[in-house]
Write a structure and sequence with these properties.
- The chain is of the alpha+beta class.
- It has two domains: 136 residues, Transposase IS200-like (Alpha-Beta Plaits, 2-Layer Sandwich); 49 residues.
- It is built from six helices and seven strands, in the order H-E-E-E-H-H-H-E-E-H-E-H-E.
- A hairpin with a 3-residue loop joins strand 4 and strand 5.
- Helix 4 packs antiparallel against helix 5.
- The longest helix has 20 residues.
């Protein structure tokens, strides 16, 4: 059964875009710090807004992940041999290498697509909403069949890593029990991008709102954007309206 068929009995829900983006806190450069989780360079800011993606463990074939890792390591190794840091072009190449290939497999619905199961998708939605306005502010999210995108502002007393861990750990345990499965439910790594200006923030929200349509999923219910009562305009992209 395809993902579309699995989700066809779920009621429709429209998505809107925040009428005003004044709530986006764009960090100054001196507020940004760099951490390394072992694979991806990670930019983090206190009270920053992030576009976050985390995916199911089987959403991308291991052979593809190894290919990405190999090409990534080759670029880094060349820079080290020349005793220099990665150039801006090399950093962009690494980012494009990972994002384009990953996006292709995610939108094609690779893997078992457990999030296409309404009960599992609801668990993920519960996890996202649980600490909303307590540890972070949700601006937009979409639960796709094999991955999740979130745009959120992380509160100053909490780290991005701890927030994502809480989403994944709660969902993994509950989903494995529900599905009678064992082993890793989520991919260990996740992707995040710190919004540095209003344009990036708006672009992230549009991407989340449009993702189901782009992937060919009609009437997809597991998408939410702050101000979701705002109607969607022709073409599937929510209208960016001024604050009322």
């Amino acid at each position: 059964m395809t993902t579309k068929n699995r989700a066809s009995n779920i009621p429709d829900r429209s998505a809107g875009v925040p009428p005003a983006l004044w709530s986006a806190s764009i960090p100054r450069r001196d507020e940004v710090k760099i951490r390394n989780r072992g694979h991806l360079p990670h930019w983090e800011a206190e009270a920053g807004n992030y576009f976050i993606t985390f995916r199911l463990a089987d959403s991308i074939p291991q052979s593809v992940l190894k290919q990405i890792s190999s090409e990534h390591e080759s670029i880094v190794r060349t820079a080290r041999q020349l005793n220099r840091n990665l150039s801006p072009d090399e950093r962009k190449k690494i980012q494009r290498l990972s994002s384009k290939i990953t996006e292709h497999y995610l939108d094609q619905g690779a893997g078992a697509c457990h999030l296409g199961n309404p009960a599992v998708a609801d668990l993920a939605a519960q996890a996202l909403r649980f600490f909303d306005q307590k540890r972070y502010s949700l601006f937009a999210w979409v639960i796709m069949p094999n991955h999740v995108h979130v745009v959120a502002g992380i509160f100053v007393d909490y780290s991005l890593a701890s927030v994502v861990h809480s989403w994944k750990s709660f969902t993994a345990k509950k989903a494995n029990d529900l599905l009678d499965c064992q082993g890793a439910f989520w991919q260990r790594e996740y992707y995040d991008h710190l919004s540095r200006n209003e344009n990036e923030f708006q672009r992230a929200i549009r991407y989340v709102a449009d993702n189901p349509t782009k992937a060919g999923l009609k009437n997809w219910p597991w998408v939410w954007v702050w101000g979701q009562d705002i109607p969607i305009v022709a073409g599937g992209t929510p209208a960016l309206l001024k604050s009322r």
